[in-house]
Specification:
The complex is a heterodimer of chains A (297) and B (231).
Chain A: H1 2-15, E1 19-23, H2 32-37, E2 42-44, H3 49-61, E3 65-71, H4 72-77, H5 80-88, E4 95-99, H6 117-122, E5 129-131, H7 136-147, E6 153-156, E7 173-176, E8 184-188, H8 192-198, E9 205-209, H9 217-223, E10 227-235, H10 240-246, E11 253-259, H11 270-276, H12 281-294
Parallel strand pairs in A: 1-2, 1-3, 3-4, 4-6, 5-6, 8-9, 8-10, 10-11
Antiparallel strand pairs in A: 7-9
Chain B: H1 8-19, H2 27-32, H3 34-44, E1 59-62, H4 69-77, H5 118-131, E2 139-144, H6 151-162, E3 168-174, H7 186-191, E4 196-201, H8 205-212, E5 221-226
Parallel strand pairs in B: 1-2, 2-3, 3-5, 4-5
The chains are: A alpha/beta (297), B alpha/beta (231).
Chain lengths: 297, 231
């Protein structure tokens, strides 16, 4: 995904004089050739993340389209107030592109993990579009679409990926059809493959999207029975409020699965963290089965 | 030495400021900026009510957004906003708050209030103009001395100096309000990072004009406007 991002951004800088890239040292060497071609629009500020977002706000105020990139924890967590004030409050947008979200950086420890990034965008009023691709093939069209607008867009890239990409999954796309009234399981981004494996043989409908904001509430209402399961690669419950609002007039039960809030203080690889957070196929199967059984007591 | 310009706007300002009665708390802060704002809008900035959206206009970013009474009065004196807007500061139907909002006030380049945001936005604005070949506009940003305590400013100071952002001019109103002070003076914090700097009497319009137009490309420029401590 990171390679797709770098190649597409370099191409956008060549094609569209409105685009600018703001970096804080992360991925700077990969963008060096683009920087030589466009020294005025490839801007590496050094390890200064507050300035990175402030500058993006200033660039946008002059009519440019800034693409801003770093690890999620530095791009979003550290600069939350700059995102709120230097972009949202100024009434301008940018394309923020993160890598290393949730537990991609499991070996680096908590300092490099940002499971709450999408929840932070939910706390802003600026109408952020949040894209969470599950496959490299989804990255280029999503980035190109974002660069062509002036809207605020967060593109959350991960090293976790599915086998197949579905670039057109802006809205919920059904990939496993259950019977009439079957429980709906929504998998976001890289959670698709473990969700499909977990629900093998279950009578559930599995729908996929790489765009949790705006959440496809029309699709949700169309596909949901009385039971909904969310499987998200970021903080558990991030989309619960959205789903609850969308189904406010429909009796339903909701299970929200995702990354736990606790700092585990453990290293290991991403597969270990997926297991500890119950987000591997076995863990998901246990949680979803228990939830569905509990409905029929 | 203090010299006062006898422009129409200058003579109107006292009565315009008196109309802004709702902002007593930040009074000293408002009056600390009046002379710099007068010189900027009377003699330096190339921007008028007709050119607030012109890409070629000069930009003035008020980073120190608290106590904007003088700012609003100057905007009214120059016709950016109607005088009547001054009568209901921060009222329920007012477009003028105790911190300005760029989406509500014509001629206001940034919404500000929280300290430490204007200089970063100004750096981005200067870079954005340069990238589009707009080399004439200057970007001025006004800060307070205590505002420099915010670390975000230090990121911007170092970067603007290192990259020779010559269209950028920062103005720091120094009324000695910072809690721990700046050893060596404010200007030295900028010049050590590659800026040029002039420190002047913040009430002396002639000195302010000379400093505000005293850029020495290719370096970004700082004007420290010293005024009496707010006590």
């Amino acid at each position: 995904m990171r390679t797709a991002f770098i190649d597409t951004t370099a191409a956008l800088l060549d094609e569209d004089p409105r685009t600018a890239l703001v970096l804080a040292d992360i991925s700077a060497s990969q963008f060096a050739p683009a920087g030589r071609r466009h020294p005025d629009r490839v801007l590496n500020v050094g390890i200064r993340e507050q300035l990175m977002i402030g500058m993006a706000g200033g660039l946008a105020l002059t009519g440019l389209r800034p693409i801003v990139h770093s690890y999620a924890t530095f791009l979003v967590d550290r600069t939350y107030e700059q995102i709120k004030l230097d972009l949202d409050h100024q009434g301008v947008g940018a394309v923020l592109v993160s890598i290393g979200a949730s537990y991609d950086g499991s070996r680096e420890g908590r300092t490099h993990q940002s499971p709450a990034d999408v929840a932070l965008f939910d706390s802003l009023g600026g109408g952020w579009t949040v894209r969470v691709p599950g496959h490299p093939d989804e990255v280029t069209p999503l980035l190109r679409a974002a660069a062509a607008t002036d809207d605020p867009v967060y593109l959350r890239l991960s090293e976790q990926r599915n086998t197949h990409g579905y670039p057109d999954a802006d809205r919920l796309r059904v990939l496993r059809q259950g019977g009439t009234g079957a429980p709906l399981v929504v998998a976001v981004g890289p959670m698709l493959d473990p969700t499909m494996a977990a629900t093998e043989g279950m009578d559930v409908t599995v729908a996929y999207t790489h765009t949790p904001r705006p959440f496809d509430t029309a699709g949700l209402r169309a596909f949901a029975g009385t039971e909904v399961v969310l499987v998200e690669p970021y903080l558990a419950g991030t989309s619960s409020a959205v789903v609850s609002r969308a189904l406010a007039d429909v009796p339903h039960r909701l299970l929200a699965l995702g990354v736990g809030q606790t700092d585990l203080r453990r290293y290991g690889d991403p597969a270990d963290h997926a297991r500890w957070h119950g987000l591997d196929a076995d863990g998901l199967r246990r949680s979803i089965s228990a939830f569905l059984k509990s409905a029929h007591r | 030495m203090t010299s006062t310009l006898t422009t129409d706007t200058g003579s109107r300002l006292p009565q315009l400021i008196r109309r802004l009665t709702g902002d007593e708390k930040h009074g000293p802060s408002a009056h600390s900026t009046i002379d710099v704002l007068q010189v900027l809008y009377d003699r330096v900035l190339r921007v008028t009510p007709d050119t607030v959206d012109d890409p070629e206009r000069d930009r003035f970013l008020l980073s120190k957004g608290h106590g904007p009474a003088a700012y609003y009065a100057v905007l009214a004196a120059h016709g950016f906003i109607p005088d009547a807007w001054l009568d209901d500061l921060a009222g329920p139907d007012s477009r003028l708050g105790h911190h300005p909002d760029r989406l509500l006030v014509p001629g206001v380049e940034i919404g500000s209030g929280s300290l430490g945001h204007g200089l970063g936005l100004a750096v981005g604005t200067a870079l954005g103009l340069r990238a589009q070949g707009l080399l004439k506009p200057r970007v001025y940003v006004l800060l307070g001395d205590a505002e420099l305590d915010e670390g975000s400013n230090h990121e911007a100071i170092a970067y603007a100096g290192a990259t020779g952002l010559e269209s950028l001019t920062a103005i720091v109103i120094d009324n000695s309000s910072t809690t721990h002070g700046w050893a060596g003076g404010i200007a030295s914090r900028f010049t050590v990072n590659g800026w040029t700097a002039d420190t002047v009497d913040g009430r002396d319009h002639t000195a302010l004009y000379t400093a505000l137009t005293g850029q020495r490309p290719p370096r970004p420029h700082l004007v420290v406007a010293r005024i009496d401590s707010k006590g």
